[in-house]
Amino acid sequence: MTDSEQLIETLDARVRRRDSRRAFFTGALGAAAAAATLSGAAQAQTVTPTPTPTPTFTEVDVLNFALNLEYLEANYYAFAVTGSGLAAADISGAIGTAGAATGGRAVGFKDPIVQQYAQEIYQDELAHVRFLRAQFTTSSLLAQPAIDLGTSASGAFSTAARRAGLVADGVAFDPYASDENFLLGAYLFEDVGVTAYKGAAPALINSKIYLEAAAGILAVEAYHAAIIRSVLYRKGLQTPSLQLIEATTAISRVRDTLDGNPTENLVRGIGPIDDSGLATGTIVDNGVTLDVSNIAPLNSNGIAFSRTPLQVLNIVYLNQAAVTSGGFFPAGVNGNIKTSAASA
């Protein structure tokens, strides 16, 4: 047993010894939350149950689900930066049907800032893949599924762009053709990654180790999303003819449509409208109307949005129905979380 494995085993034992205390604190926190609501401390909150209970998944299921998403993101940036997908050593596994990431190519970056951001994010996403894979033994390691990152008119990127109105029927969208197209491709993924990790947190609460790790990855994904959104916003303001800000709004509307119409819960960051583009808004401060950006997509309580794993699958499969494959995963994802929600 390595030092790392011994440390994890020791920490897991400590977590198990705290189970009885956790049960007490969970009850206490629930009572406190109820008292806060009654006292008006959460006046902006609308607490109603979701119409369909989310299935219960194990911590292993959630980690495997996250690994599927990291394979998707890491390969996109790997192609953009290096011209190739992830190496065999980073995608092999004994669980699930192994597949390749296909169709990507290097971006001929013109803006050195965008290029450096892409290189940084690539390294971060590769680190996420390797970290998640390191949590499993060789016999329990999830293989990368087939991933469509191509540029054909019938491919996932073109389908998403067509639904957003960015390209006409039969026309391909190539996310590798320019800095701006690359940023829009990244925009499609990054916001979803933030909401996915936040939505997965309840399934990891019994393991404080994994919960903290997931929170760490969520924070990095949020940094990435902010980078992509900020650069798109700047470019959109500088060159309005590119219609970049309008494009982000259109992509967000597609994601909103795909992930259904969940009942609003403003404390948890759940709602029928859980996405927003970069369109400039206004605020009134001391009688003066000011334009404001929308870099951080938040609800009225200033809380980031959550999506269940099934809602995330709706988006990456590009389908509102309960299906097991499609979009960026033409043969589906690997692991036990593989069917999207029936949100149509």
UniProtKB/TrEMBL annotation:
Keyword Transcription attributed: no
InterPro entries given in the database record: Pigment-catalase-like (IPR052965), TAT_signal (IPR006311)
Endpoints of the signal sequence: 1-44
Keyword Ribosomal protein (UniProt): no
Pfam name, any one: Ferritin_2
UniProt keywords, alphabetically: Signal
Organism domain of life: Bacteria
The protein, known as: Ferritin-like domain-containing protein
